[in-house]
Write a structure and sequence with these properties.
The complex is a heterodimer of chains A (about 80) and B (about 220). Chain A is mostly helical. Chain A has two helices and one strand. The longest helix of chain A is centred in the middle third of the chain and has 58 residues. The radius of gyration of chain A is 33 Å and the shape is rod-shaped.
């Protein structure tokens, strides 16, 4: 084996700390996934509530139009 | 000393038994009071029982037993004749039997066809054990690498692996920065949504007030 092909190693002094930090990062990633799932559920609930609000708003709009038409165009109501 | 002498009555000692002392003198027994005469006893009339009824002679005779009347003579024992002997075996007359039974032909020997060989039993294999459901979000137990044993010793990695680790660390840093920015934008969106909701609530209250006013005007006019 020539000198250029010989493997070169790098010494890691605080290997144990690195392992601990890696485990902590894995734990944080799992927690972030759980939080993201919960946020997604809340977003879906928000979307359903907004859809319900939109339908109610449309209904109120129709009724207001009817009242406006009845009040300002009495001949057309007959 | 033998066993025979075990239960043998022991010989009395030659010393004489002392005489017991005299009993104490009871002074009260000699000074008992005299009993009252029988004339002082109360009569039966003082109890209010009245006069006792007289006992009749017939009643005394009723309690005495009268002699029983003589028994009638027993009837004579009837004369039973002995029953005829009945034979259990029936007697068949061949003339009275139907022809199908009269000419008894020998029964043909039954023909036994050999049964087919039983089908081989299917090979029932035990059902596979239920596999546990895959839970994607279940936290996996942290498996420590085997090099954990060499924590105290100096640890070396190849240069290529070291470069890959550095690139991965840089990538993670960038991703964390992006995640931080995303969270900031989400926070801004949330605040904007809150503001819009507050505006909408104010407008809704304004519309409600105007609707109440219109309703009041219309019904007062009617």
């Amino acid at each position: 084996m020539e000198k250029s092909e010989m493997p070169i190693y790098v010494k890691l002094d605080e290997y144990k700390d690195i392992l601990d930090i890696m485990g902590l990062m894995k734990t944080r990633i799992n927690e972030a996934k759980k939080v993201m799932g919960k946020i997604n559920e809340i977003k879906n609930e928000e979307d359903s509530e907004l859809e319900l609000w939109k339908s109610e708003l449309d209904e109120v709009d129709r009724k207001v139009e009817f009242i406006d038409k009845t009040l300002f165009e009495p001949e057309a109501a007959h | 000393m033998g066993i025979k002498n075990l239960f043998k009555k022991k010989q009395t000692s030659a010393r004489p038994i002392p005489v017991p002392p005299k009993p104490p003198h009871f002074h009260g027994l000699t000074e008992l009071p005299n009993l009252s005469p029988l004339d002082d006893m109360p009569s039966l009339d003082s109890f209010g029982l009245g006069e006792l009824p007289e006992i009749m002679e017939d009643e005394t005779e009723a309690h005495t037993q009268k002699p029983l009347p003589p028994k009638p003579p027993m009837p004579q024992k009837p004369d039973f004749r002995p029953l005829p002997v009945i034979h259990n075996e029936p007697v068949y007359h061949e003339a009275a039997m139907p022809p199908s039974i009269r000419h008894e032909a020998p029964m043909p020997a039954p023909i036994y066809h050999p049964l087919p060989a039983p089908a081989p039993k299917p090979d029932f294999r035990p059902a596979p054990a239920p596999q546990p459901r895959f839970v994607p979000d279940a936290p996996k137990p942290r498996i420590l690498p085997p090099r954990q044993e060499h924590l105290e010793k100096p640890f070396f990695v190849k240069v290529d692996d070291y470069r890959s680790i550095l690139e991965g660390t840089t990538l993670i840093k960038n991703n964390l920065k992006e995640a931080d920015e995303i969270i900031s934008r989400l926070n801004e969106l949330k605040n904007e949504g809150d503001r819009e909701f507050e505006k909408w609530r104010e407008k809704l209250e304004d519309v409600q007030r105007k609707l109440i006013y219109v309703d009041k005007v219309i019904f007062e006019a009617g």
